[in-house]
Amino acid sequence: MASRYQSYTTIEQLPARVGDTVTLNGWVQDKTGKGKLTFIKLRDGSGMVQCVVFKPSVEERVADDAKSLTQESSVSITGTVRAEERAPGGVEIDVTDIKIWQIASEYPITPKEHGVEFLMEHRHLWLRSTRQHAIMRVRAAVIKAIRDFFDMHGFKLMDSPILTPNACEGTSTLFETEYFDLGKAYLTQSGQLYAEASAMALGRVYTFGPTFRAEKSKTRRHLTEFWMVEPEMAYFDLNDDMDLAEDFVEYIVQYCVQNCRKELETLGRDISKLEAVKRPFHRMSYTEAVEWLHANNVKLNKKQPDGTEIQIDFPWGEDFGAPQEEAIMTQFDKPCIIHRYPSEVKAFYMKRDPSDPRVVLAMDMLAPEGAGEIIGGSQREDDHDALQERIRHEGLSEEEFQWYLDLRKFGSVPHSGFGLGVERTVKWITGADHIREVIPFPRMIYRIVP
Ligand code: 4AD
Ligand code: MG
After folding, report:
1. Could you identify the atom of ligand 1 that is nearest to the CA of residue 232?
2. What is the pLDDT of residues 55-82, one digit of tens each?
3. Are residues 203 and 156 part of one domain?
4. Which of 155, 168, 188, 228 to mutate to test the pocket of ligand 1 (most atoms within 8 A of CB)?
5. Same domain, yes or no, for 269 and 355?
6. CB 422 within 8 A of CB 143
């Protein structure tokens, strides 16, 4: 017995249904008329198709219903699929019947240009527009590619908690809440510490969920709530970690090239730039990157105590900001991994480089075309005493990290992992110029509605 679920067709299936009579369920994106003809642009989430109502060949009621449709009215349209070379999907519908679910009130988002603030306030409706629709489909593909990649390679999904008793990525960007009689709890900044415990139980794992940063920065690449996927692998050193990150990112990008061509074209993305994202990527150490900045005369703006700014040579030991990362990436059309950062600018859990104790076995992957950092990762400190010393040095609570230190007492092994930001990746692949466009409902310092 055909279920309701199977009995209707989606717009993306139409090219295979030429000549058939089908029923589509959707919303009216636009309606125009000319003499005896009414043209309805119907959107159903899978695509858009033009439906043609020819008055002489339908019941009068159908012709009247077609005329009454407003933008975003919800309708089921029945008709015959006709091949039409000039149409975007190669087909049109010759309408035989219309069922109106609702005639929509005057829709606030019209085809004219709207300001971003207005669109953000109407995010719940803005998601229906062609561009947002294409971005969300790429986002879904990126998430599918992420899960497929790890599932295919024998990683086990291990969820990390979202309410946590302590910080993972520094104490300055924590969202805090009261937790019954137990004091304060924090929204997790990263599932990594728990992923490490999981990796000691299952070998290769990944954790995938929302993460939170009380970021005060109003940039095009910061959200306060974002999705991060974090693989963690026992018996992996930094090189293994970087190799995996390259395979992984190549897979995601090529998956989108193969499965989202229509969406990327809609977005006006230069697909050849994505096709070029193949291993091997570029790699350089932090120290080499600093030397490159010096050799290419890329200066750092430094504020003086009196408020004036001067330009100085980039000092070894300082963290890279977006300007340095962008400068470094101007020479590359593929991602570049920068490794071995000064320990002072990186998190407490990173292992020191045995051959240079000033640096840790960290790695960041920077994407080209101004996209910036998409991955942060490292080999973890696996020596109990060294880790304890780092926890003390950072002024973190040893008691709260007791369970984490335990992992270094009971069969400690070299292990590594990284975190990839889903929105940073989708922003890069889609070419969106602001991160707020690549998550359905963005959370930023100045926005929590809708
Ligand atoms: O570099 P981060 O802070 O690394 C970690 O959290 C590690 N614990 C990951 C690990 O080793 N398991 O964050 C990882 C990635 C960044 O490279 C970036 O893509 C993304 O998360 N990210 C953000 N995305 C959007 N908005 C923000 N505020 C972000 N902060 C980090
Ligand atoms: Mg980082």
Report:
1. 12
2. 999 999 999 999 999 999 999 999 999 9
3. yes
4. 228
5. yes
6. yes
